[in-house]
Amino acid sequence: MKRLARTPKLSESEEQKAVLSLDNKEVVEIVNDYNERYLHWEEVNRRKDKLPVKPEYIWHLMKFFRIMKSRSIVFGRYSLHYNILDDFQEKLHILDKGAAGNLASTIDAISDTREKYILNSLMEEAIASSQIEGATPSRRVAKEMLRENRRPRNKDERMIINNYNTMKYILKIKNEELTPELLLEIQKRMTYGTLDDKEDEGTFRDNNEIRVFDNDGEVLHVPPEHSEIPELVDALCDFANDRNNSFVHPIIKGILLHYLLNYIHPFNDGNGRTGRSLFYWYVLRKDYWLFEYMSVSRLIYQKRRQYKMVYQYAESDLMFDSDNGLGDLTYFIRFNLNTIMESLEHIQKYLKEKQKEQYLALKKLEESDNLNTRQLQIIQEFVKHPQKTINIKTIMSTYGVAYATARNDLFYLEKLGYLKKIKAGKEFIFIFNDSRKSDEENI
């Protein structure tokens, strides 16, 4: 992947020819279609053989209509430009209104605790965000390491553990304002024990040697001079803390923070992971708690070539020639919004499947001939709330039965394989055996 050149500009005479081509109905339809899909110049130019006029004319007209609708935000000595597309409004509305409530009710319906879903999401996010930066352990190995709290064997595993611990830290500090010191702390936690030079942990870069490369060694991005970092980080904090008068939708703003951190590239290492965590910090700060259940980076990892490309699209396509714009950030916003919605669809599909599994399990239980009504109710509660623990006294008080009856119920269910018993002092506690095979003989 080569670094993209700046998008083309026309001479005054060519601009006039481009405008005159609007008399062609086909040109108007193409311009509208390409803008609706928000194609980049590279994508327009690839279609040149199918266009009725020069691709530069189509591009000039596309840019004209984009500029007319664009939004601008002052960011230090720079400016941010982007467009709000029609499908952005729809996606943001879903995230604002319906998604969180539906997600909460589904989770509550199948579990008595949200903790395991949050932890699983944090694991997925930590693993994928690290894999984007080159960590090699598989998801299965990485999850086993995190669940077992095993010590890392190498830097890649340390990177994943750092990411996981930092994501948990983000949950704790989500209500704090962003400061340069907090940003340094996040990067320090992300990079602990993984850098060639330990001095790079928790410090801003003091050189201009940093470049962003692709896998073939091509330079994709040259960050601003290191002397600009203090001013840019201050501007980033002001933007994150809503000290800017312009309203920006919180999810859009979180995406912009993600982009800006990586554009500034204030650290010698850990910029990508820190940028993605900054997005989570901001949307959680704005009470979009549904992101606690979503791993956006998992899908970014699957589309990592596109992820790199939209950075290129944004930086190579300046909205205006005369200012210090960072490019057209619509490409980056669109990619991330699409990824967020896809991530939401994944978690909704997963929870729907779990809900269906629970329903079928309860249905089979109801058809069981070897359980009495009380025993059936005990197992139904465990199916709905698999993290539950009970003891003999709980059954006695809940169902109003004698000690012997309660004991017989639990030991019988343990014998059938529904429950596991664990010694706790002088008595037993019982937990759900969720690894049990629900074959027809026992159900």
Written as H for each helix and E for each strand, in order along the chain, the element string is: HHHHEEHHHHHEEHHHHHEHHEHHEE
Query: Tally the helices: what do you get?
Result: 18
| Residue-averaged pLDDT | 88
Number of strands: 8
Could you name the CATH homologous superfamily of the largest domain? Fido-like domain
Sequence stretches where pLDDT stays below 50 over 5 or more residues: 437-443
Ends apart, CA distance between termini:
57 Å
Whole-number tally of structural domains:
3
CATH class of the largest domain: Mainly Alpha
Beta-strand content bin: 5-15%
CATH topology of the largest domain: Fic-like fold
- Tell me, briefly, the overall form: elongated
Q: What percent of residues adopt helix (DSSP H or I)?
A: 55-70%
- Largest sheet properties: 3 strands, mixed
Organism: Methanolobus tindarius DSM 2278
Protein name: Fido domain-containing protein
GO molecular function, one term: DNA-binding transcription factor activity
InterPro entries: DeoR_HTH (IPR001034), Fido (IPR003812), Fido-like_dom_sf (IPR036597), Fido_containing (IPR040198), WH_DNA-bd_sf (IPR036390)
